[in-house]
Amino acid sequence: LPTRAGSSLEPEEHSMEPPAMPEEEEVPLTVAPGPAGCQLFGYVGIEAVLDQMKIKTMKTGFEFNIMVVGQSGLGKSTMVNTLFKSKVSRKSSQPSQEERVPKTVQLQSITHVIEEKGVKMKLTVTDTPGFGDQINNENCWDPIIKYINEQYERYLREEILITRKRKIPDTRVHGCVYFVPPTGHWLRPLDLEFMRRLSKIVNVVPVIAKADTLTLEERAEFKQRVRTGPEGLLECPMCPQPWLKHHVPQIQEDLKTHAISVYPQEDFDQDPEDRALNNRIREKIPFAVVGADQEHQVNGKRVLGRKTKWGIIEVENPAHCEFPLLRDLLIRSHLQDLKDITHNVHYESYRVRRLNESNRP
Amino acid sequence: YTQAVFSCQFSDSAGYVGFANLPNQVHRKSVKKGFEFTLMVVGESGLGKSTLINSLFLTDLYPERYIPGAAEKIERTVQIEASTVEIEERGVKLRLTVVDTPGYGDAINSQDCFKTIIQYIDNQFERYLHDESGLNRRHIIDNRVHCCFYFISPFGHGLKPLDVEFMKALHGKVNIVPVIAKADTLTLKERERLKRRVLDEISEHGIRIYQLPDADSDEDEEFKEQTRASIPFAVIGSNQLIEVKGKKIRGRLYPWGVVEVENPEHNDFLKLRTMLVTHMQDLQEVTQDLHYENFRSERLKRTGK
């Protein structure tokens, strides 16, 4: 099958064609009766396209942009280093780093090219020092929203040019990891406000930071707090629903009621298989994670972990924390999905809004 | 705290007057009268304040806790909740009041959250001043705040702006003892680093925290130095008993090990508790001689104008 430049089979270039392409890419190899089933009489060689895609991908490489948001000291930089197993972020706890809390939220992006088994990834991590650190944190999310929209704007401008670049540089934020402090009680007003606003424009992945401070029971409780509400019905100040009706359990319930749809969003499950997989993930959100970039000796093996007087917390041990789930979600299974949803949903809604604005007299 | 030795040697030798026995009499009288102590705890929610108080005094001061959800917190301002218990140990009665401050630091805008606290402390001083100046001074109840445990989050890199503002506003009104909460989140190195950062920032901003008095002649000098060097105390609290090597101890059970609350290698809980009980008297004195007197002279100067 000849592949032309700009063909619909290239995973990197997203043309403006209707979303019929993803289906072609994801059709399983077995000859299953699809929507318009067609029996093949012999071996044609269509499956060879997968190899070509792979080779092409390896040559062009990936771009992946993540943003980390949370109060200072929640281990954001360590988490990024643990995720990508390299010193991608400089920790603010290092003595050389400027340690003063900035008065307003600043955004700092660092780009690295990392390579694994011939696949190159251009990883950009955007940090947000100053978020939630002030006494008055009202509107501290504004610089972040502005940054995300600026990236969409940049892409839009490239896209509407008459002579377009072959590969538009993609600086759009594909995932925003939000670090919730492990209080064990509930989400704070700041957490709800931030996630409510940002889940509308970007994929938000909430995680419980420094989860080694919570026992397993406390973790489960934090995720699903069952609590009897106060006597009598009160109005929730954030949405006009009677209190007892929705404030009974779970972080997930609360997120749903306040129309906060975190990644993976239910609306974008493409088929029952997807839904089943994503439901399993949704049950566990937010992941309780621990980050570490030092290795220790445990049972003869070298593991990434934190060493304390009472034991070694192994970061990649699923019995200790849910870091493996976060890593699998962000990198091993849903990386492309994060990019697709950013492009097909968030960017598209931004584009529609902008084009409508400029059309109005 | 040195146990007064009941010396029953009333020697009749010439020259012996007998007032050396006075401390024993004072001691006996105070035991009869009982002690009053008011401790305030301040810190963001979720830092383990209630668990620590329960661990310190081995009682359940908060039997049926109601933890408010996020939406509730939006509406609330800082509340002041005082609970009093009478604890007795070996004949010594202690009337302990713990003043909790739920809502502190929870809101998105925490600008005014310590105004309520300052007002409460001033009100107690005001009440005492009024009682002291009154005609019947037999039964003055001392509700003044003798000590304030300020909980510093272990998740940051030092003091937060709110911490600095609070301590600057209150170090002239109450004895502040900074405490690093949930210390099992830190490795030993991280703990040392955090303590140093906190102390540096405290001296940088000119904050006056409670200073341990110099050791008396009969006190262990070295122990005192060790305690002083551990400030701010990095503590862990727990209400659960875990079985370790056949014994039941207070601790937290993790998949990777057990954190023991009363193990000095794991955290400074024992140091904090010892410091508190051996310095209750001194904390009361400093409150009376320094903070209350400051308040009183300010007040009287104002009304005098």
UniProtKB/TrEMBL annotation, chain A:
PROSITE patterns: G_SEPTIN. One of its GO terms (biological process) is cell division. Coiled coil: none annotated. It holds the Pfam family Septin. GO terms for cellular component: cleavage furrow; cytoskeleton; kinetochore; midbody. CDD domains: CDC_Septin (cd01850). SUPFAM superfamilies: P-loop containing nucleoside triphosphate hydrolases. Signal peptide: none annotated. InterPro entries: G_SEPTIN_dom, P-loop_NTPase, Septin. It comes from the Eukaryota. Belongs to the TRAFAC class TrmE-Era-EngA-EngB-Septin-like GTPase superfamily. Septin GTPase family. This is Septin-7.
TrEMBL record, chain B:
Gene3D superfamilies: P-loop containing nucleotide triphosphate hydrolases. Residues 33-302 form the Septin-type G domain. GO terms for biological process: cell division. The record marks 155 as: Important for dimerization. Its main location: membrane. Keywords: Cell cycle, Cell division, Cell membrane, Cell projection, Cytoplasm, Cytoskeleton, GTP-binding, Membrane, Mitosis, Nucleotide-binding. One of its GO terms (molecular function) is GTP binding. It is found in: Cell projection, Cilium membrane; Cleavage furrow; Cytoplasm, Cytoskeleton, Spindle; Midbody. GO terms for cellular component: ciliary membrane; cleavage furrow; cytoplasm; midbody; spindle. It comes from the Eukaryota. Belongs to the TRAFAC class TrmE-Era-EngA-EngB-Septin-like GTPase superfamily. Septin GTPase family. This is SEPT2 protein. The gene is Sept2_0.
